[in-house]
Amino acid sequence: MAKANITRDIIHRQIKERGALGFERHYHVTDPFIRRLGLEAELQGHSGCVNCLEWNEKGDLLASGSDDQHTIVWDPLHHKKLLSMHTGHTANIFSVKFLPHSGDRILITGAADSKVHVHDLTVKETVHMFGDHTNRVKRIATAPMWPNTFWSAAEDGLIRQYDLRESSKRSEVLIDLTEYCGQLVEAKCLTVNPQDNNCLAVGASGPFVRLYDIRMIHNHRKSMKQSPSAGVHTFCDRQKPLPDGAAQYYVAGHLPVKLPDYNNRLRVLVATYVTFSPDGTELLVNMGGEQVYLFDLTYKQRPYTFLLPKKCHTSGEVQNGKTSTNGVSNGIHLHSNGFRLAEGRAPASPQVELPPYLERIKQQANEAFACQLWTQAIQLYSKAVQKAPNNAMLYGNRAAAYMKRKWDGDHYDALRDCLKAISLNPCHLKAHFRLARCLFELKYVAEALECLDDFKGKFPEQAHSSACDALDRDINAALFSKSDNAEDKKGGGPIRLRATGRKDSISEDEMVLRERSYDYKFRYCGHCNTTTDIKEANFFGSNAQYIVSGSDDGSFFIWEKETTNLVRVLQGDESIVNCLQPHPSYCFLATSGIDPVVRLWNPRPESETLNGRVVLDMEGASQANQRRMNADPLEVMLLNMGYRITGLTSAGAAGSDDEDSSEGQVQCRPS
């Protein structure tokens, strides 16, 4: 956290009344408060799992929905139950929302009975019942500027829009994912951008998250209806359900190519929660079966494979979603035509010495690396990177730590760090070699061979080192094993886009949108999200300084947003924490999960020395969750039932990525 002059701000708050709200928002979540976060109260009243929570705009009411088909409205500041009503649903409630500008009178619920109900809390009655979905309704979304409108996402693959001003008791289909992804696709979550209410984010089956422009979709459909030839079609006509430019996809760059491997191990990738930052410039995604990802909606970047300068005195520039003047993107992207080598050139940046305090942090990270404390080393390097974002050595060292730890996604983060290090220092020997190793580990075998050959040309003294020889053998063995089935893959498109059957066939429009996907900015590791498909992740703080997420181990995790470092783990449930909803203006957090209670968390007094909910061994908890994510699903099920699985030992802490071969001296130690 950045240092602040709180005394000066307090004086300004006292002198200028207008500054009071800004003061409250700036300081309502700070690092000392996070360190003192503890359990304040448990709200009891439900008789089943509490699957959803929602604050009203003022933050003086909290609504909850449960497997018991009841919704309860609480006064969380006084720990009181204000209202409890049966919603009329016949199955588990998965989503609850206050309708904006209704005076907190109207509450909307969605449930596993495929129904969406609208309730008037003043009379405790259900006033509208919508039954248009054909499968479980997982999320409801509202928008501040659309007071009579809301949306739902369901496992029938449909996003529906509702307008309570309409006399009809039916909704309209806004987006039909089955037209793009086949009949098996399921919509799991959605949210509306708080700053641009025409921007809708949708999470569904698979690793891709979709952003839609609602206004463009409506205008497109109006124009289609008004067109004189709207009812006349030839045999070759094909009307697009969505206009060009109305959808934009986002994906963690390593996930599509990992998807076949995950499928073979019955590991499901599905976005279980999506939410925008308060200023609407960032999108946070809790990816079921994987990690938590943050996407920058302003400075977008394409997924990388690699960016390699052709000569030591030049470097290509990693650009955030931009292309060079000749139209060739300055990166190697996951396109169906393979990869393109960067043509851009820029002068090498001189290596700037670190200030003494950052040099000390780097040395601490190097010592942690030497002790094989990979996560501690990564966190220290990340702390230094935040303060010195143009230091190639820090990126190269962090890449080495990622490659040693081998959690899910670590090799891709290492690749990104290698690219950054090379762009800052084109003669960074270790970053060049690690780049080739990362490409190999990410299954880009041909690209790894080309990168290794380029490395040998640039650094001939390393061409016959033990590390180069070992990687060369690994690459050639992989190429040999692939040669047998190479013909089978010809004409099938890139592995990340192929469909596996007729029911989940992917349309051409969907293929194009996936190819144009943007990559993530930050990744947050430590939690586990494999058992439930309603697990949330949220921004915490008015400036979105922190990220919070539930976990299958009954804990919830808190990270610093900018460094991605884990700063706090608290035990929030006896089984699983699914829901985390931060208060709109206080350092106050509501959580729920399998237990039939709602738990409230806030900074505890400094006089309280004992906090039994704190998980002190955050590293151990994170490693256990990585093992859990990569365990056989049957083992996890038995583990949840209380059986001890001998196969889940610490030996599996590396995650799903393959072990490195002998590395030699070229990449063993950080610089």
TrEMBL record:
InterPro entries: DCAF8 (IPR045151), TPR-like_helical_dom_sf (IPR011990), TPR_rpt (IPR019734), WD40/YVTN_repeat-like_dom_sf (IPR015943), WD40_repeat_dom_sf (IPR036322), WD40_rpt (IPR001680). The lineage of its organism: Eukaryota, Metazoa, Chordata, Craniata, Vertebrata. Gene3D superfamilies: Tetratricopeptide repeat domain, YVTN repeat-like/Quinoprotein amine dehydrogenase. SMART domains: TPR (SM00028), WD40 (SM00320). GO terms for cellular component: Cul4-RING E3 ubiquitin ligase complex; cytoplasm. GO terms for biological process: negative regulation of fatty acid biosynthetic process. Coiled coil: none annotated. It holds the Pfam family WD40. WD repeats lie at residues 43-75, 86-129, 540-569, 570-611. Residues 651-671 are annotated as: Disordered. PANTHER family: WD AND TETRATRICOPEPTIDE REPEATS PROTEIN 1, WD REPEAT DOMAIN-CONTAINING FAMILY. It comes from Copsychus sechellarum. This is WDTC1 protein. Keywords: Repeat, WD repeat.
